[in-house]
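Consider the subject:
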Amino acid sequence: MAERVEAVSAPTSKPPKASRFTRGRIAALGTLALTTTVVVDACFIEPNDVVVERSTWKTNVRSPLVVAHLSDLHAHGFGTREERAIALLNEAHPDVVVVSGDVVDNGNLEHARAFFEKLHAPLGALVVRGNWEHWQRVEGERAFYASVHATLLVDEGISLRDDVWVAGMDDESTTEPNLRKALLGKPAGAITMGLFHSPSFFDHAHAKLDVAFAGHTHGGQIRVPFMAPLFLPLGSGRFVEGDYTALDGTSHLHVSRGLGTSMVPVRFACKPEIAIVRLEPR
C-alpha cells in the first residue's frame, strides 16, 4: 500500500525587523544628503557661479559691435560673484556695457561703486532704472553714475556711434516710459538699441527698435529643472530668459537672468549670467 504524502506549503517569510530598519535608515540618509546638496548649491554655489551667454545678431550696423548686457545686480558690495563677473567681462572685451536696472535694492548706490569702478569698455557703461530704483528712494543717481564713468538714461537717447542710437527707458512695471522722447535726436540711418528693465515693454515697442535688452525676470531664479518658472514678476509678460525675436521678425531682444538675487539670496537651476551679444552687419 502506497504511503500517503501531504504537501506542506513553505511559510511566508518576512524580512527581519532589523533589515527593514536598515533600509529606512538608508532612505532617510539619502534624502538628507540630497536636501543638503540642494541647499548648499542654492545658497552658496549657484548664486556665485556666473556664466557667459553668447549670441550673434544680424542688424543694420556698419561694423561689428560687442555688447555686454548685465541686469539685476542687486549689489550689496563687491564679493565673489562680482569678482567673477568682472573677470569674465575683462575676458570678453566688450565695446560697451549696458545695465538694465535693479542695480541696488536698498536705495544705496554706494554698494555698487566698487563694481562700476572696475567696468572697462571703450564706449562706456549705460544704465537704466528698474523697479527697485522706484520702490527704494535713490538719492543722487546721476552724480553717482557720473562719478563711476557711467551714464544713466531715463527716457533719454544717446548716440553710441554714428550708426547706433541707444534709447534708455524708465521701468514700465512702475511708471510710464516715453519712447518718443528717447528717440528725439536719433540720426537718420542709425539703428535703435532699446534698453529697459521689464521685458513686457518689448511687445508694444519693438516696431521702433532694432535690438533691445531687458532683465527683471531673473529667469525665475529658483527653478525646477525642465519645468516652467514657479514665479515671474509683474512686467515679465511672455518672457523668461534668453534671446527672443519680435513676432513680426523685425527686431531682437535679450532677457537676462540677472547677476544678483531678489527677495531671497538663493538660486537653483538658474545660474547668474553675463550676456555677450555681437551685432554684425546684415
User: Anything to note?
Assistant: The longest helix spans residues 17-45.
